[in-house]
Amino acid sequence: MKPVSLIESSLPGQVWNSARQLDNIPVINTETLVPTGARAVVIAPHPGDEVVMCGGLLQLLSSLGHPLQLISITDGSASHPGSQQWSEKRLSVFRGQESVEALRRLGLPMHSLKWIRGGFTDNALAKHETQLTQFIARYLRPGDVVFTTWREDGTCDHDAVGRASANAASMVGATINELPVWAWHWPTRDQGLFPWHRARKVRLDTWTVARKSHATHAYASQLDGEPAIGIAPLLPRVILERMRLPYEVVFV
To answer: Which residues, including other chains, have CB under 8 Å from residue 119's CB and lie 6 or more apart?
Structure first.
């Protein structure tokens, strides 16, 4: 994940809390999104993106007994360049541990969850998009339903993973769904750039929202920045606020 500008985050007029189209997004149920017996594959550019992106949907799919596969493309170790507290060596281990705790807080069956870790380098995925596509395709099967970051989310890694996932899904005959992450925090004036015609709303109950919010707080390395070296929190307050929305939006 990449930091949202703290100045931008202090403004109320962002797409997630101001776009007029939000109230009119059609609702889709989980059974329609992922047919009975289908495997759901969540592809996260960095550890934590799976929770911020679709932590509620993951819970719903798990409760219905769908086979789940999580693919973490990078280990997130480059999130704090120049930091002594959160060095790349420490983060290469710690970010994975944070994800284990976050998934536990979501209530996912860790004994049966298939989890693939790609080991790609942060902030460089666009340079290796062909290799990334081939890697993802290796772990997909015909009939899979894939969820990943929107290919126009606005950060290089998220965009590259969205494109590579779409290409890999097309190659093997899987269905692709994309979810905005950082794009939600664009200023409202950019709401016209969203593909609202593709948007579907997955409703979440109170307990599902609470578990998702609790899971987000498992990423201790992302909650506090280091102002002395110019690093803002990777999960600023505005992101944590958005985690309490009673729905998630999927671009189908």
So the answer is: 74, 75
- Using alpha carbons, list the distances in angstroms from residue 32 to 41, 51, 61, 66, 123: 16, 21, 11, 13, 35
Separation CA 56–CA 106 (nearest Å)? 8
pLDDT for 15 beyond 70: yes
Q: Which of 150, 179, 162 is nearest to 126 (CA)?
A: 162
Q: What is the largest CA-CA distance in the chain?
A: 51
* CATH fold for the domain made of 6-251: Rossmann fold (3.40.50)
Burial bucket for residue 133 (CB in 10 Å: 0-12, 13-18, 19+):
buried
What are 205-249's pLDDT values in tens digits? 999 999 999 999 999 888 887 777 777 888 899 999 999 999 999
In angstroms, how far is CA 196 from the centroid of its own chain? 19
Whole-number Å distance between alpha carbons of 144 and 81: 36
3-state class (DSSP) for residue 155: coil
Question: Which secondary structure element, helix H or strand E, spans residue 91, and what is its range?
Answer: helix 88-106
Query: What torsion do the CA atoms of 103, 106, 109, 114 make, to the nearest 10 degrees?
Result: -40
Q: Is the pLDDT of residue 100 over 90?
A: yes
- pLDDT tens, residue by residue, 127-161: 999 999 999 999 999 999 999 999 999 999 999 99
